[in-house]
Amino acid sequence: xxxxxxxxxxxxxxxxxxxxxxxxxxxxxxxxxxxxxxxxxxxxxxxxxxxxxxxxxxxxxxxxxxxxxxxxxxxxxxxxxxxxxxxxxxxxxxxxxxxxxxxxxxxxxxxxxxxxxxxxxxxxxxxxxxxxxxxxxxxxxxxxxxxxxxxxxxxxxxxxxxxxxxxxxxxxxxxxxxxxxxxxxxxxxxxxxxxxxxxxxxxxxxxxxxxxxxxxxxxxxxxxxxxxxxxxxxxxxxxxxxxxxxxxxxxxxxxxxxxxxxxxxxxxxxxxxxxxxxxxxxxxxxxxxxxxxxxxxxxxxxxxxxxxxxxxxxxxxxxxxxxxxxxxxxxxxxxxxxxxxxxxxxxxxxxxxxxxxxxxxxxxxxxxxxxxxxxxxxxxxxxxxxxxxxxxxxxxxxxxxxxxxxxxxxxxxxxxxxxxxxxxxxxxxxxxxxxxxxxxxxxxxxxxxxxxxxxxxxxxxxxxxxxxxxxxxxxxxxxxxxxxxxxxxxxxxxxxxxxxxxxxxxxxxxxxxxxxxxxxxxxxxx
Length: 526
Hints:
The chain is an alpha/beta fold. It is about 55% helix and about 10% strand. It is built from 18 helices and 7 strands. A 7-stranded mixed sheet has the order 3-2-1-4-6-5-7, sandwiched between helices. Strand 1 (about 90-100), helix 3 (about 105-115) and strand 2 (about 120-125) form a beta-alpha-beta unit. Helix 10 crosses helix 15 (about 435-445) and helix 16 (about 465-490) runs antiparallel to helix 17 (about 495-505). It is globular. It starts with 7 loop residues before the first helix and ends in a 12-residue tail after the last helix.
C-alpha cells in the first residue's frame, strides 16, 4: 500500500489547529483550577461539589473557545481560493430539492437560473412533495421552460425515501452527465455570477482536494423584527466562525446547500439510513476520502429566515435532532482533527444547554441546602450567587462579558455596532428561552419520529397571539415560578438567573411583537 504524505498546506493547517485547540484546552483547565481552588470541600460535599465543578468546566470550554477566537480573529487573514479562466464549461446541474412548497417557488428559481445560465447548465426541480402539490410545481416548470427552453427539468418521487439526501443521491445515481451540482434549498436564491465564480475556483488545479465550495449565505426578504434579528445573527456568525475556520483549519463544514460540489466525489458518499441532517456527515465522509469543504467568503447567496420565533423554534427542533445524530462522527476513524472538532462543537452547543440548566439547578440546590443547614457547605465556596468571593465573582463577570461581546472582534462600522446591539437586545429578551426549550427538544427526541416539515417561506407571515400563548405558556409559567423560588428560597442566586427568567416571563408578548413587520420608515435602521 502506498503511503500518501500530507501536503505542506495540510501540515500547516494541522499545526494551526493543534495550537488553537491547545490554547483553548489550557485556558479551560486554568479556569477549572482557579475555581476549584476557592471551593471548600468536605467528605460530605465532595461528590456534589465535583459534579458542579465538572459542569462548570464543560460550560467554561465555550467561554475559552469564544475568548481565544475573538482575540485572534482580528489578525486572521482569510485565504481566498485561487480562480482560473474557464475555457470549456463542464455540465452543471442547479438543483432545487423541494417538498410541499406553496409560496414563491417560481420567483426564486427564475431569479437563480436567469443570473447563472452558464453554457451546459440545467435547472432541476427535484420534488418530494405529495401528489396535490404536483400541479403547482409543473406550472412553475412550464413557466420557466418558456424562457429557458431545453434547460428546465422536473422529477417527482412518489416515495420520498431518506428525505433531501435521498433525493439528491437518487439524482446523482442516474445522472452521471453532470460534473458539478449546485444545491439550493427551496428558499434559496443565487445572485448573478455566483455559479461562475465558484466554478472558476473549482476548476483551478490548486483546489483539486476540495469537493464542496461553500458560499457565504445572507438573509433576504427580512421584513419582520424577528427575521431581521436572524439576518444579523447569520451574518455575524459566518464572519466570526466560518471565516475563522477556513483561516485556522483550512476547511469548514458543509451547510448542505448553497454550495458547488464535485459530483464524482459526493456520489461516493454513503450515508447511514434515517438521518435528518446530512451536512455534517458529508463533511466527515469527504474528509475520509482526502477531500475537504472550503468556505468561500468572497461568494454569497441568499436564503430566507423564519418570520417569527415559533417558526425558528420548529426549525431548531429539527436541527437539534439532526445534529445529535452526528455523535458517531466525533469518534470516526480516518478524519482530521479539524473535522472532528467541527462535528463535536455543533453537538456540544446542544448538550451545553442541557448542562447549563442542570448546573443552575444544582447551584440553587447547593444554596438551598446551605441556607437550611442540611449539609455543611459554605455559601462563600459556591460560585453561583457568591458576592463575597472576589475570584469567583470575576470569573462570572468575565464569562458573561465573553458570551455577550465576543463578536465585537468582527465589527468594523457604526452600522455593525448598531446591529450588534439589536442582536444583543433581542437575544436577551427572546432567544434566552432556547436554554429551556432546547432542553425539552433534546430530552424529547426519543419520543418523536424523524420528521421533516419545511419552513414556511412567506417572509411576512404573521402569527396570532393565541398561537404564541399556546406554544410558549410553559416557559412563561416556569419563569414566574423560577422568580418565586429563587427570591424566597435562594435569594443569593436570583441575580444570576434573572436574564433567563425575564426572557421566559416576557416570551409571549416579545415573540408576538417581533413577528410584526418592521415599518417602512425604520427598515434602514436595522
